[in-house]
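[Discussion] Sanity-checking designs against the backbone

I'm trying to build intuition for which residues belong where. Below is a structure token string of 340 positions. I'd appreciate it if someone posts a full sequence so I can compare it with mine line by line.
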């Protein structure tokens, strides 16, 4: 914990001063004698109420100490939303994503995971969506308009996901979109995105202004760029790529009906996706179940778009001091010394 106004902690010196004043006050001799015939009963009553006598002053001193700490503006280490941060979601919608080894289907699970991610990330974070099969398409430009991104996620089920899997090209499109987003001008939610003609390079490091989250369930089968070539471009731009391999090794896709039905094996390619994450400084998750996929996107949603910072807790200390003062007043009124 740190303090915005540490010199105000000197006000804590008022605590020992108050204790000393209280001790002096309680040791004063009574001016008037109290006539009580049964001293044994009086001693028993006094012993039983001794702790009650000190409880309200102790609470009062604790409230004063809490107030002194509060006015010094205490701060704790935390993570705070990063200004102008952008996350590009890249989702594979190829035909193999219709396999049902991850319920309800791989694509359905991916849509649900992205929705979880959108609920976790800061409201000021810009999120873009790229969908790909044989070639990538920008489903939603980087925006803070969550409604637009949600609609694009819902539309993934209607994407004509045939023609192969172009992971390298999808990564390259994400990198280019991220570069433009770094130079993005302010727009109200729902407005058309405007870009400067010359976008500055993105920050390099673990808290890059742009992060890419790539989900795929298969090996590259089409495209101009190989996956690691796309990863190299992301690395050069300073964009970490977080990859998710979705599906089980024994996943199959059903084609045809009746006697013409075929079971086509569609295993994921975790080795390639892990290499992409390692090359760019991201992380890799091998999601063979909905639970693993859900946890991965929830964790990413709570991490991306944030940077280490400090959160001020003055209000918490002031509220605590007020509560202690109320408790001291109530107990003082209830337990004030009264002779029977």
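Best answer:
Here's mine. Compare freely.
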């Amino acid at each position: 914990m740190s303090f915005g106004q540490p010199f105000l902690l000197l006000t804590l010196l008022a605590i020992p001063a108050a204790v000393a004043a209280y001790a002096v006050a309680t040791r004063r001799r009574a001016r008037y004698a109290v006539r009580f015939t049964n001293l044994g009963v009086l001693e028993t009553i006094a012993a039983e109420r001794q702790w009650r006598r000190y409880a309200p002053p102790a609470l009062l001193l604790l409230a004063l100490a809490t107030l002194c700490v509060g006015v010094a503006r205490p701060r704790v280490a935390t993570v705070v939303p990063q200004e102008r941060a952008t996350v590009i979601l890249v989702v594979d919608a190829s035909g193999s994503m219709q396999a049902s080894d991850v319920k309800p289907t791989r694509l359905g699970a991916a849509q649900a995971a992205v929705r979880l991610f959108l609920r976790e990330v800061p409201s000021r974070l810009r999120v873009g969506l790229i969908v790909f099969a044989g070639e990538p398409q920008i489903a939603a430009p980087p925006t803070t308009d969550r409604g637009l991104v949600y609609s694009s996620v819902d539309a993934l089920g209607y994407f004509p996901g045939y023609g192969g899997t172009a992971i390298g090209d999808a990564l390259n499109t994400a990198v280019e979109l991220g570069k433009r987003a770094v130079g993005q001008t302010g727009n109200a939610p729902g407005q058309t995105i405007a870009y400067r003609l010359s976008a500055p390079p993105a920050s390099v490091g673990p808290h890059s202004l742009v992060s890419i989250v790539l989900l795929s369930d298969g090996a590259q089968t089409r495209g101009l760029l190989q996956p690691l070539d796309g990863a190299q471009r992301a690395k050069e731009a300073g964009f970490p790529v977080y990859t998710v391999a979705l599906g089980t090794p024994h996943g199959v896709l059903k084609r045809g009906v009746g006697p013409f039905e075929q079971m086509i094996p569609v295993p994921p390619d975790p080795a390639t996706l892990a290499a992409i994450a390692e090359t760019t400084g991201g992380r890799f998750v091998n999601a063979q179940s909905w639970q693993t996929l859900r946890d991965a996107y929830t964790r990413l949603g709570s991490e991306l778009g944030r940077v280490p910072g400090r959160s001020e807790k003055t209000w918490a200390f002031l509220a605590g001091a007020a509560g202690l003062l109320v408790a001291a007043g109530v107990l003082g009124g209830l337990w004030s010394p009264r002779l029977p």
